[in-house]
Amino acid sequence: MKKIILVALVLLAGSIDMQAQLFKFGIKGGLNYANQSGSGITINTDNYNKEAITSYHVGLLAEIKVTDGFSVQPELLYSTQGATYKNAFEEFKNELGYISIPVLAKFNFNKTISLDLGPQASFLLSERKNVNFKDSESFEFGVAGGLTLNVTKNIFLQGRYVLGLTEASRDAEVKNSVVQISAGLRF
């Protein structure tokens, strides 16, 4: 009877260790360099300059190992995006806060570097705007691509570009784009 219990404990411990290698949770955060592109923007005059804004993102991730060279990484992020618009008289800032859900396919070149590609759905939570957009869209769809550098087994750095494919405003044909630089920790 003792041998059966010992074998069961060894198998359970091995199973828990295998599950830990196949599935990891993590946290991440970093800087956004966000901008908007498109037409139909009105700011008291048609002569304006558009500039990117620096903002932030923070959130949770899970990494699900499928094979040695491939894994899937869904994330849940709070991300701020937008742009600054300037004319001869005033400066207007359009800052949108999203809950973003990227689901990335991770192609591991080796234990250190991976290529990350996939779709991203974003849901508008807040907007702080001084631009004359009538209403921002509450849903945005985009694609994301970038690289991950594993500094240690648990610490990583990421660089990513997210391109919005749907309009960010009902009033103008404006799309978000953002470059993200992140640091994170996997458990």
Automatic annotation (TrEMBL):
Keyword entries, A-Z: Signal
Domain Outer membrane protein beta-barrel: 19-167
Signal peptide: 1-20
Name the UniProt record assigns to this protein: PorT family protein
Source organism of the structure: Flavobacterium caseinilyticum
